[in-house]
Amino acid sequence: MHFHTISAQPLGFWQATIRFHDGKRIAKSFSVRKFGRREALKHAIAARRDMLAMVDDRPYLYDPIAKKCGYGKELAQAHRVEALNTS
Rounded to two decimals, what is the model's pTM? Predict the structure, then answer.
């Protein structure tokens, strides 16, 4: 998942993506303007989870650069909130 800002979306948007081994790519974006910052992030997390559920074998999904960069405190907080809501 990534956070993007562009001139058409000055508040930004969260984007969940996945690239399959055959080169196919799926992306879903969630606008901060439409959903708010936290809700957009929650929608992107849910979309990413749905995308990963479509994959049978996942060894190629590990990205060492993503692990080094992390997603920051906001993403970690969203994961905690989501875990509390699903408990």
Answer: 0.62
